[in-house]
């Protein structure tokens, strides 16, 4: 049936079916079929537009349903996800469960694990040096970075602890600087509000506003206020100067440390040279002492008797004698030199009555005859030949080293 306007000139809209009697007007609760032309509160134009749009929306719904009915989905064999049939060929290249080789180490991994592999365990992925923020320009594979560069090549790795301490101190200073900037902003806002307040007071008081509110020295009876605390800018400048001073001190200490290291290296080199020279001197002294022993053995003379008997006879006849055969000077105690084989001094009778103590007592340097004349620093006296109680000693001419 057609719903017409009050002037019956034209129909506003047509119902496709008969309006049921149970349908009521939402405004006055009257039945819709008898009330369609009598309700004065109803917006007829809105109802007409709704009636015109309803068939169009219905047609659109039918088209959408038809389109939905034609869409087909398929399940991916790798990730068990429902994929549109049209997108299934492209999904194979982006499926998270599909295995792909790594772009750096060629390791075959699921596509979803590639990011974590590159971030944590890929041995061939190029990585910058951990000290890049301090100036290191190295970039290379992960294995070479941690096995070769950091232990042997990186100049910043030995200073790692110091650099971490400096970074931590820098972060603390940046935090303090940020807090101070925030505080300065708050103080500047308060200062602006105080200035606006003072400007309002000046305008309100007019000529009565004091030009200079500071009391003069002649009229003031109260003690003057203490000097104001240093401003924030001066504090920051002082901190900056202290930081510069610390940096220069640190550089000077580093320079001194390098100088001490170089001096230590020079001292070590000199000690090594001295040790080598001392070894050469020992070899030469050994050769000289062997030569002295040969000279003493070839130049000695006299009867071969026991040292004790010869010594006793000499003590009875001539206590202050200068020797058995060739002595000519005053008695002189032979110098004693300790050796590795005989670290204790030889017995007195061996020095008094026999020949020189020999190599066992002198340690390869030779000794003076028992009662012979002193012939040199490490020489052989002109004593008589004889056999000592512990080792043979041969008299002969004095030899000076």
Automatic annotation (TrEMBL):
Residues 90-145 form the TRAF-type domain. Keywords: Metal-binding, Zinc, Zinc-finger. A zinc finger (TRAF-type) spans 90-145. Signal peptide: none annotated. Residues 216-236 have a biased composition (Low complexity). GO terms for molecular function: zinc ion binding. Residues 48-67, 207-236, 309-336 are annotated as: Disordered. The keyword Protein transport does not apply. PROSITE patterns: ZF_TRAF. It comes from the Eukaryota. It comes from Rhodotorula toruloides (Yeast). This is TRAF-type domain-containing protein.
């Amino acid at each position: 049936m057609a719903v017409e306007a009050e002037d019956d000139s034209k129909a506003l809209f047509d119902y496709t079916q008969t309006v049921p009697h149970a349908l009521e007007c939402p405004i006055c609760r009257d039945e819709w079929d008898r009330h369609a032309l009598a309700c004065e509160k109803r917006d007829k134009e809105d109802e007409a537009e709704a009636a015109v749009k309803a068939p169009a929306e219905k047609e659109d719904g039918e088209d959408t349903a038809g389109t939905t009915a034609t869409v087909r989905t398929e399940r991916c064999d790798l990730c068990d996800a429902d994929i549109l049939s049209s997108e299934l060929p492209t999904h194979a290249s982006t499926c998270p469960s599909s295995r792909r080789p790594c772009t750096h180490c060629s390791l075959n991994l699921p596509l979803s694990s590639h990011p974590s592999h590159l971030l944590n365990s890929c041995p061939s992925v190029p990585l910058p040096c951990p000290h890049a923020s301090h100036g290191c320009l190295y970039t290379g594979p992960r294995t070479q970075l941690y096995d070769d560069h950091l232990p042997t090549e990186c100049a910043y790795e030995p200073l790692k602890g110091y650099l971490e301490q400096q970074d931590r101190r820098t972060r603390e200073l940046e935090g303090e600087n940020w807090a101070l900037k925030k505080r300065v902003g708050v103080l500047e806002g308060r200062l602006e509000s105080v200035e606006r307040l003072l400007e309002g007071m000046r305008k309100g008081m007019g000529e009565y506003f004091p030009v200079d509110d500071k009391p003069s020295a002649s009229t003031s009876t109260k003690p003057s206020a203490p000097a104001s605390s240093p401003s924030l800018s001066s504090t920051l400048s002082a901190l900056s100067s202290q930081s510069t001073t610390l940096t220069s001190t640190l550089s000077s200490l580093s320079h001194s440390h390098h100088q001490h290291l170089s001096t230590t290296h020079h001292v070590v080199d000199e000690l090594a040279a001295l040790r080598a020279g001392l070894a050469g001197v020992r070899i030469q002294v050994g050769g000289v002492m062997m030569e002295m022993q040969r000279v003493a053995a070839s130049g000695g003379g006299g009867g071969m008797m026991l040292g004790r008997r010869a010594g006793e006879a000499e003590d009875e006849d001539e206590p202050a004698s200068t020797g058995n055969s060739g002595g000519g000077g005053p008695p002189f105690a032979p110098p004693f030199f300790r050796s590795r084989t005989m670290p204790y001094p030889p017995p007195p009778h061996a020095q008094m009555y026999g020949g020189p103590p020999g190599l066992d007592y002198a340690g390869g340097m030779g000794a003076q005859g028992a009662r012979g004349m002193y012939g040199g620093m490490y020489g052989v006296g002109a004593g008589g030949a004889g056999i000592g109680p512990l080792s043979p000693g041969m008299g002969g001419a004095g030899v000076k080293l």
